[in-house]
Design a protein that fits this description.
Helices cover 38% and strands 15% of the residues. The protein is α/β, with parallel strands linked by helices and 607 residues long.
């Protein structure tokens, strides 16, 4: 079979015009599973130098989950920097730039001042979007440049010449404005490589040379059709695609990125293959979030990079565990227990390992020293051979207990749990106990180790109450006289009907203004709390005055309504950072919990 290693450009000089779209029906019959063609042409591996990762967690990743808040984006951005930004392994992170929230997130991440990941943008391929990128001061922006006839003819209603001229024209304008264009060759694995893609890439390289600026190209395997197999044909062959652009169109490997999707379970191997054949950048998302089946998992490519290069210092791999913990605890995303590197039990085995075996040599079943590399010890799988020591070991890992705080195998609850396990095997069980089953046993025999329903409710109430008071403080406006000084109070109550009272005091605790949601309590409120009432002894007043920060009380029964409420309060601060008053809100617990889900979806950071 022939070996292809071209040393000169082999792209078509001009695009191949066609009257009908080229849909490659022999490869993509649609009513049947797509075919992988082989033409017997091979290319040698030629690993990219350098190899790096780019991130699209906040762009493509946000299209597969509820949107992140600005605060969440900033925290995740910090984690990306900690994971691989310090060394430059994670080069860039791309953002939408259309909404107010997008703009606030971009501003917040830029304010960190990190060299890496660089904050880059993403736009649709039109001049208005490019103007927006210019106004926001972007030095690099990704542009949607769809290259398959599926997109050009069937989606956009264009022909190839119109697409070619449109994409090249927009890239030229970006270069004129000093913006590095990153052209996203969308659906490249169903495109006419020689008849459209390479002529367009060659044109972009000519423009780059004339402008003295890079023009980057991202190869987007939009439908996951790429394959890593030797001898596979274009447009599905990842090795041939990469080399077509580097060798055929003269695109420097450092200006080339691979963006894959996992429709056919090949997202990771395709990304690695792109690296090995000369594509410097691999674009991915944390935990593989992305449209449909998802993108290349960024944390997996960090491990792959170290495996391929031996550069252990390129990333702080322990951050992967911190990322997983943040997604589970703060974002309430359920990572599958056996998900590689991030799942709670990914390095566990169901082969009956017990504590004695771990003590002898954990390498028998562990892929590497997960305690050192990921900050996570080897989980134990519980069977009838685990013994009381195994149960205690599992519980200590479950509750993250260390030193003198660890549960001992002599603990009565350990004995009761192990007795239940032995009884199950005596009845004929032959499989290990799952994490879910072990948690159920732990809850039964060690209930004090788990938060009660009341504690859970308190936690939810506190979190949402803080969001509510922050929203109110940020919308405070002063005008008029008397109770008309603060018209925002009534407006706020109409929006958040679970708030039963709002009280505003001066720094001495005297009531300046108040508002009531329910007319049934208006008279009682006015009678008991007329303007000027001294509230200086109330907890919701005294605590913010002492600390200068917001305060949330425990759950109690309102004297005015008889309902369970939580009081949350915060100081009002002037431009000199002096406290000018205290705003306090009584929140009806039952109504708050009814709206908990919708409230959690609101982006209070954007107000």
């Amino acid at each position: 079979m022939p070996l292809l290693h071209p040393t000169r450009s082999v792209y078509a000089e001009k695009i191949t015009e066609v009257e009908k779209p080229e849909l490659f029906r022999e490869m993509f019959p649609y009513t049947r599973i797509s075919r992988v063609p082989f033409d017997g042409v091979f290319v040698d591996p030629r690993p990219a130098e350098p190899m790096f990762i780019t991130d699209t967690t906040f762009r493509d990743g946000q299209q597969a989950r509820p949107p992140y808040t600005v605060k969440q984006i900033l925290h995740i951005f910090d984690l990306l920097h900690e994971l691989g930004g310090r060394s430059g392994l994670i080069r860039a992170s791309e953002f939408f730039m259309y909404s107010d929230k997008d703009k606030k997130a971009i501003e917040a991440c830029r304010s960190r001042g990190y060299s890496y990941p660089q904050v880059t943008g993403w736009i649709r391929a039109n001049i208005n979007d490019l103007k927006l990128a210019k106004e926001m001061g972007f030095k690099e922006v990704g542009m949607l440049t769809s290259v398959s006839d599926y997109h050009i003819f069937l989606k956009l209603g264009w022909d190839r010449k119109k697409a070619f001229d449109s994409y090249a024209g927009l890239a030229a304008q970006a270069l004129e404005w000093g913006i590095t264009p990153r052209c996203h060759f969308e659906d490249v694995t169903r495109a006419d490589i020689h008849g459209f893609c390479l002529p367009l890439a060659a044109k972009l390289m000519e423009m780059s040379k004339d402008a003295g600026m890079p023009v980057k190209i991202r190869l987007c395997d939009t439908m996951g059709y790429g394959v890593p197999y030797p001898g596979a044909a274009l447009p599905r062959s990842v090795p041939r695609l990469v080399r077509a652009f580097t060798d055929g169109a003269g695109v420097p490997g450092e200006w080339l990125e691979w963006h894959g999707h996992n429709d056919f379970h090949k997202v990771l191997i395709n990304a690695s293959t792109a690296w090995l054949y000369g594509c410097a950048g691999v674009n991915g998302t944390l935990l593989g979030f992305g449209e449909r089946t998802g993108n290349t998992p960024l944390e997996a490519m960090v491990i792959e990079y170290i495996s391929l290069t031996g550069d252990d210092d390129a990333a702080r791999t322990q951050t992967i565990s911190r990322i997983a913990e943040y997604f589970e605890k703060e974002l309430e995303y359920r990572i599958p227990d056996n998900y590689p590197f991030a799942g709670k039990d990914f390095n566990a085995t169901s082969a009956g390992i017990h504590v004695d075996g771990l003590a002898k040599n954990e390498e028998i079943y562990n892929i590497f020293d997960t305690t050192t590399i990921l900050g996570r010890p080897v989980p134990i799988i519980i069977t009838d051979k685990s013994g009381r020591a195994g149960v205690a070991y599992w519980l200590n890992q479950m509750f993250n207990l260390e030193g003198s705080g660890q549960i001992q195998k002599t603990h009565p609850a350990v004995g009761m749990i192990y007795a239940r396990i032995l009884a199950a095997y005596e009845r004929g069980r032959n499989t290990s106990f799952s994490k879910k089953e072990m948690i159920a046993l732990a809850k039964r025999y060690m209930p004090e180790r788990f938060p009660s329903e009341l504690e859970r409710v308190r936690s939810i109430a506190k979190k949402l109450s803080i969001q509510v008071i922050t929203r109110l403080v940020n919308t405070m406006e002063v005008r008029g006289q008397g109770n008309e000084l603060y018209p925002c109070l009534e407006k706020f109550l109409r929006e958040f009907t679970f708030v039963q009272f709002i009280n505003l005091t001066d720094t001495q605790g005297r009531l300046l203004a108040g508002a009531v949601i329910d007319p049934a309590y208006q008279a009682r409120y006015s009678e008991r709390l007329p303007l000027g009432t001294d509230l200086s002894m109330r907890e919701w007043f005294t605590e913010p005055m002492k600390s200068g920060t917001l305060h949330v009380t425990d759950i109690y029964q309102s004297l005015l309504t008889g309902k369970l409420v939580v009081s949350v309060s915060a100081p009002l601060i002037d431009k000199e950072d002096n406290i000018t008053g205290i705003i306090g809100v009584d929140i009806q617990l039952e109504e708050l919990l009814r709206r908990a889900e919708s409230l959690e979806e609101e982006d209070f950071d954007d107000e």
